[in-house]
């Protein structure tokens, strides 16, 4: 591995124009494909095999002409209007404003079913005139008639709030042009008068692409890189390579929308977030190692930056190519394995068989793979293009000490503190993370809905006005599909009435009524083979009690079937989302087990050790648990009032977080511990190897962690709830894993294990392939290699004379 990467890095540096030309062709090709093939992303978050999904498909079969054949894809929405306090939509200025909006909407060519664009007052009156006599003829009590009408009427009881159904002229919601949605919004705002307005539904779920988070993350990353290298040129290289990598990955993902409908609106943003963070970090590791190789080559450990730069200029191009090869061979090996851990963790999500989650994971994995390729091919080529000026453009004031020199660094000072009392630091770090993890026991998962959108957005406003005017359940309707099977007409009528009674009798249901049958519409006596029962629960979509109501109705289905011979199944947006949340909860533990096993095997191959993989996996578990605890405390429970709109955690965040954090955690494990093993393999004692490895890796890993934290934290500003919380959770996880686990828990454990950390059974060593991640095979290639100081910490003192902390 190391020798292969050495050759790649050296060739990329020396034959820069060839590599740059290939990358230019790739970028042009990806850009062209993206421009020609990109289609709108899907708004659907469905999973095959769930009861609610299968029921929805069954409704499509039995009611092919039904208005809501596809609750998640139909190009429809609703406009919610509300009169000021003390007024109503039936008279005065509010009535006139309603009429102004309707007249303006009638003129929009991209809207269809315009006969439904009528005042909620008129629509409500018509509904009363049509439904009341019909239901009274069926012998329904007046209270039931009133309840049924109230569950469907577009006008609230106080006449302040109204709902206007809107249909766009498009096959699905994803096909609605963004400019049509924008025009609709402008028309409503221009004509709303004194009304408060909001809109929601499939047609209005199109997210706006914004690069603000990426720009902020890049800006903070630039500052960290400048401090790390002390060079403006060197600071710009990781940013440039990361942007190229992310651009390539996102271009491929967007082009893939032409061949799959599993790519949803969150997929590109998540891929961008992950690709940007790892892209900068991977380039940082290789560039930092290249700087160390240059310094060692000119014996410039004690030189000032200006003197170093002059020395660098004296190195011939061939020797610089050799040093670039060494950097890629050593740090690149760690980059490849670190990237591989991220790929494994993300690709493993496809085992769960959730299409939209698989698409998100594979898109993120693609950007990570491209980040690795960019780091080991394009970056050295750009370095070769710049030549001796890679570390030029000194930043004022900033000093960037080289961790390879003989001066004690902050990293060495910190690891000596840990070395004095490793047991204390091990216990303290573990206890801290366990305590922070306690709130995770209250984790509640839910899919995103209008009720979880940011406050003040049209979707959230529409949701709140609907809840205020019509009750919480109006935002979470469910549909029961009743199938009669072989029952005769009389038995079907009885079964239909019993279905309504059973469902409405469930605690937490406000109303249940038959809204459609598939019988002959011209023959009221023909009940058909199935009926749809609209269910209005007492609770909103984000209320945990809505899930309990759904569970109870499903539990009563067996008794209903025994009693009538018919059957029912429940669907709707809320049941679909509840089923998805349950599926994700069910697969969470198996997925964690898969990830931990893969982590153990991969790290055992990398480090040829039993204990190192075990403590790495344990540390990963602690950092993830603490991240869940802090995320739940702040974002779900509103601890300390920091978050003014606490909501349930989005269902697929935990499993995505575990996959991503696993990869990032193993990144830091590989980068830190490979330097420890490198020292041990070259003859240092286990304790000194741990201290030396930490000294060499701590500065760069700290910079990498700060970059990742800044990139992820910048996404807290995003409008998308999932991305907002995911950004926070990832930033928190990186903080815990880098600074508490990898820089405290791991070295403390390594000191306690001492030589046992590297013990490896002989029989297992014969089975496990030997992988040269430390670059041992490159030692003979190092021109002008200096003293190894096999049993010394890098401040020049022999191990036997070393006293920790002095």
TrEMBL record:
The keyword rRNA-binding does not apply. It is a multi-pass membrane protein. Gene3D superfamilies: Multidrug efflux transporter AcrB transmembrane domain. It comes from the Bacteria. Pfam families: MMPL. Residues 244-385 form the SSD domain. Residues 785-806 have a biased composition (Basic and acidic residues). InterPro entries: MMPL_dom, Mycobact_MmpL, SSD. GO terms for cellular component: plasma membrane. Keywords: Cell membrane, Membrane, Transmembrane, Transmembrane helix. It is found in: Cell membrane. The chain crosses the membrane at residues 215-235, 242-260, 266-287, 334-356, 362-386, 423-443, 588-607, 614-636, 648-668, 700-718, 730-753. The keyword Nucleus does not apply. Residues 783-806 are annotated as: Disordered. Its main location: membrane. Belongs to the resistance-nodulation-cell division (RND) (TC 2.A.6) family. MmpL subfamily. PANTHER family: MEMBRANE PROTEIN MJ1562-RELATED, MEMBRANE PROTEIN SCO6666-RELATED. This is MMPL family transporter. It comes from Corynebacterium macclintockiae.
